[in-house]
Design goal:
Bound molecules: nicotinamide-adenine-dinucleotide
Structural class: alpha/beta
Strand content: 5-15%
Strand order of the largest sheet: 3-2-1-4-5-6-7
CATH superfamily: NAD(P)-binding Rossmann-like Domain
Largest sheet: 7 strands, parallel
Oligomer: single chain
Number of domains: 1
CATH topology: Rossmann fold
Radius of gyration: 17 Å
Shape: globular
CATH class: Alpha Beta
Amino acid sequence: MKGILGKSAVVTGGARGIGKGISIRLADEGAKLIIVDIDEDAARCTAEELCRRGVQAEAYKADLRNITEIDAMVDYVYNKYNSIDILINNAGIQIREWATDFDEEKFDFLMDLNLKAYYFASRAAAKYMKTQEHGGAIVCISSANSKCYTSKRSPYNISKAAVNGLVGTLAVEWGRFNIRINAVAPGYVLTDMVQKGINDGIIDMQANFKVIPMKRLLRTDEIAGGVCFLASDEASGITGQTLFIDGGWSNCGLPED
Ligand SMILES: NC(=O)c1ccc[n+]([C@@H]2O[C@H](COP(=O)([O-])OP(=O)(O)OC[C@H]3O[C@@H](n4cnc5c(N)ncnc54)[C@H](O)[C@@H]3O)[C@@H](O)[C@H]2O)c1
């Protein structure tokens, strides 16, 4: 894809799951990867795996619920690479409980990562991107749950709906600086997050397939393809949008066999 080769690309939560898939695709397109994750060992393994593919990649440890750590990470990237070109806000968590049981501490814990970190990382990167002639591209990982609301995850659904609003809002402010910001909203991808839901008996994929027209789980590379497109110059006229990569789930009205 046009415009990825040689760019510096930060992927938060890039150690595993969807973030790892995105890192692999961006690396295959020739980006220099900075894998930011709270799990330093896993991030290092992923970076080493990328380096073995012949690309430049490094791991960076940060807890993205901490704004000071976000700012330090973005400063580090800019100072080392003399640019911050692509930011993928991907790290997120799920807490599955009825709304009536959700306490304030858990609500804040989830929102700090799924929403606040996206806002402050985008803001920190944009401060540098607006000084770059070519601007920059930000992609935030939302969820089909931003539109298809399911029970026992209300703060998660709300955080993801807010991400769609975040990209629309910041696109309006930052278009003038040639900074594009979009979202990708995945359906079900079999990562650790979804496996835990299946193991805990909260996710029943056979039941879910009745509202997912393609009737299968998605692969990380299918999400990564959309993310990479939005980060590339192929999408040079697109900003403020949310691209649903969900096997058709968000268009399905009633359960279908
Ligand atoms: N898996 C799905 O089906 C699915 C569907 C829709 C949206 N999503 C979204 O995709 C994103 C990635 O999900 P996934 O399924 O790959 O999750 P995952 O749990 O497999 O991976 C998340 C990564 O984020 C890291 N992380 C967690 N807390 C962190 C913190 N405080 N600071 C830094 N890193 C932290 C973890 O160490 C891990 O490497 C999330 O935003 C999630 O909401 C996932």
